[in-house]
């Protein structure tokens, strides 16, 4: 099976951060579609991403590791496995919910049509395993029937959870008003023995529809930097330009690049990574001399393979066991990933 045919060299995850060609796959902080997670991890690992970011859930982590192990057995390569946490309420840690028996018979189901995860079937409720909380169905419902359900971790017990999961890296989604939650979460990590390659902190322009100026994000990250130094963790800063929107179109890519430019000179020390609205169009918005540490692809990466994932499941097999589908999936994934991995070359 051909591996990374378009790549001239393979750097380790740590080297890729230094060279500005880091690529991460975001499977979704609340995504629990286990068969798709295994296949997504396998496809994007095979084309050379440096990190896979999944929900901090034992079943999800197990599904991800199945995909990573499958690729490692065939290629010898294994990216970092990262798990995502939140130190307070966050749009990434929610799911949509409604009672379909309350839907009027004349409803044209706009919620179903706008859902990128295909989590709303014909005249059915939201499938919580498929929903990853993008929130697009909320304003789509003209009857106001769809609600969002937040779920959060017991911050004081997070350390024990991570000892069980044993990830290579952890990402904490934060916000300016989350100082107390961040301290509690870090206190939980301080109580356990964790060997992490990096502790990523994600913060961005939009949180529950409210904008944040870059200076406020920088102030927040500097406070997080001081706490990470105290605990001895190496930081990775993720700038969430336009959360969970990369699959919408070309326009969302500008937000991530604009935020990186604004933050580049005022962020604390450590790799500064693009995310939020990233897609095929992001690279063309950067000048050739501009060097973010790398990029994270979420909605765009998942949406790209959605038809093949669904077809494989319809066939009753995994994408890994469907040679034609696997070849098509890795070709599509490499078109998205290779331009960034090859930036250092």
Feature tags:
single chain, 345 residues, alpha/beta, eight-stranded parallel β-barrel, two-stranded antiparallel sheet, 38% helix, 17% strand, globular, disordered N terminus
Can you characterise this structure?
It is a single chain. With 345 residues, the chain is an alpha/beta fold. 38% of the residues lie in helices and 17% in strands. It is built from eleven helices and twelve strands. It has helices at residues 13-19, 34-46, 58-75, 110-114, 137-140, 158-165, 179-190, 214-231, 253-263, 299-315, 323-341; strands spanning 22-28, 51-55, 80-86, 94-97, 147-150, 169-173, 198-204, 206-207, 210-211, 235-240, 272-275, 294-297. An eight-stranded parallel β-barrel has the order 1-2-3-6-7-10-11-12, surrounded by seven helices. Strands 4-5 form a two-stranded antiparallel sheet. Strand 6 (169-173), helix 7 (179-190) and strand 7 (198-204) form a beta-alpha-beta unit. The relative contact order is 0.16.
């Amino acid at each position: 099976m051909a591996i990374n045919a378009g790549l001239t060299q393979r750097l380790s995850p740590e080297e890729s951060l230094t060279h500005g060609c880091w690529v991460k796959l975001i499977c979704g902080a609340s995504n629990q579609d286990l068969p798709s997670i295994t296949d997504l991890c396998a496809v994007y690992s095979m084309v050379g991403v440096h990190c896979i970011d999944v929900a901090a859930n034992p079943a999800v982590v197990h599904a991800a590791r199945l995909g990573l192990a499958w690729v490692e057995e065939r290629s010898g390569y294994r990216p970092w496995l990262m798990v995502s946490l939140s130190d307070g309420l966050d749009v990434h840690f929610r799911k949509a919910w409604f009672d379909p028996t309350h839907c009027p018979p004349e409803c044209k189901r706009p919620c179903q049509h706008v859902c990128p995860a295909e989590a709303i079937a014909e005249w059915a409720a939201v499938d919580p395993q498929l929903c990853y909380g993008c929130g697009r169905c909320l304003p789509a419902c003209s009857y106001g029937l769809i609600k969002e359900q937040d779920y959060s971790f017991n911050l004081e017990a997070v350390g024990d959870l991570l000892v069980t999961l044993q990830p290579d890296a952890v990402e904490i989604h934060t916000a300016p008003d989350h100082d107390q939650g961040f301290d509690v979460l870090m206190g939980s990590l301080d109580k356990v023995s964790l060997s992490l390659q990096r502790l990523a902190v994600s913060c961005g322009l939009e949180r529950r529809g409210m904008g944040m100026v870059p200076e406020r994000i920088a102030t927040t990250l500097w406070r997080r930097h001081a706490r990470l130094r105290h605990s001895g963790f190496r930081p990775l800063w993720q700038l969430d330009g336009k959360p969970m929107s990369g699959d919408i179109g070309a326009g969302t890519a500008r937000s991530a690049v604009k935020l990186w430019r604004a933050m580049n000179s005022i962020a604390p020390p450590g790799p500064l990574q693009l995310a939020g609205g990233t897609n095929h169009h992001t690279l063309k918005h950067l000048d050739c001399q501009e060097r973010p540490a790398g990029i994270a692809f979420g909605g765009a990466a998942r949406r790209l393979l959605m038809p093949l994932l669904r077809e494989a499941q319809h066939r009753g097999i995994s994408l890994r066991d469907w040679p034609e589908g696997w070849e098509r999936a890795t070709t599509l994934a490499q078109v998205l990933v290779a331009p960034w991995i090859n930036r250092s070359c």
